[in-house]
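Hey, can you fold this?
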Amino acid sequence: MEIKDVIQKAKKNDQIAFNTLLDTFWNDVYAFQLKRTENENDAEDITIQTFSKAFDKIDTYKEDYKFKTWLITISKNIHIDLVRKRKKSIRNTSKDNEENYFEIIDDSPTPEDTIITEQNLAKLLRDIKKLKPHYQEIINLRFFQELSYKEISEELNEPINNVKVKLLRAKKLLAAIITKTIITKK
């Protein structure tokens, strides 16, 4: 399937299309930010924010441009804004009061969800501990404390879109760890 078709599906709120776009372009955006920031955590945070903003504004994407270029531009602007905020003042604690959050449909279990639920709890907890702490926390809040996206957003004091993208990324990383563990044992 071509990226243009995937983008059209994403514009119609297709969850699989969002997953495909995230899988396809994550490494490009992350690598771009890693070069700019020279910091893995900042690069990862900015990449999450990039996809969050891109998914929120997917209707504004014009096919005259390459999707990857559009994402990199969003990413670059987020980084510039971050640098400006850091330079401006550490005390600037203005909060984002956006009420119009982008809804990513989360009805059907993804392959990652299926793999996660099939694991026995002890093994699953051991695998979760292999994730970075912020991914461990979001997995815990969503799957063990069973909080909604909105509740997680409030708990972490982050926009709901960041929570959704971070959770999606955490599930993918956890699924990869679990799959690697299964393959290693065979």
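Oh, and this one too while you're at it.
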Amino acid sequence: MSKIVWNVDTMHSEVLFKVKHLVISTVTGSFKSFNGQAVADGDDFENAEIEFTIDVDSVDTGQPARDEHLKNSDFFEVETYPQFNFKSTSFTKIKTDLYKLKGNLTMKGVTKEVELEAEYGGTERDPWGNTKVGFEVTGVIDRKEFNVTFNGLTETGGLALGENIKIIANIQLAKQVAA
């Protein structure tokens, strides 16, 4: 069976993150610039090889001052580490529309294996005849494992920021036509 390349359709995809703030509420942010692809056997995504890159400078929490703080050495160190990279090691079907995605995530020069869940949303042809596939990828990573350790304390001595970061990526892939 021939390999098929599926590129991330960035116009119809989003990468979000959520973190607890003051342990009482959640702040949501996103990355506006990213790209990636999956290489699969035909239209079957089991065992697909997946790569994904995020431009860290594109972080957006809706608060420009907070975004600038996230870009500096307290958090992401964008000038030294401009990208987050993910490369899958396995993509395994758990049940009909649910996959387990394992791979190596690199943030701030630290590479660790992470495990995410990918829910298949369906396959459809757009008005121009292009085949599209949707997945919602979710998971939790511990930011400290990637050397993102900055934290303040609250008045009562609690952590100002949660350590676990929820990731939600709604990804649409476009099947590439062989040249």
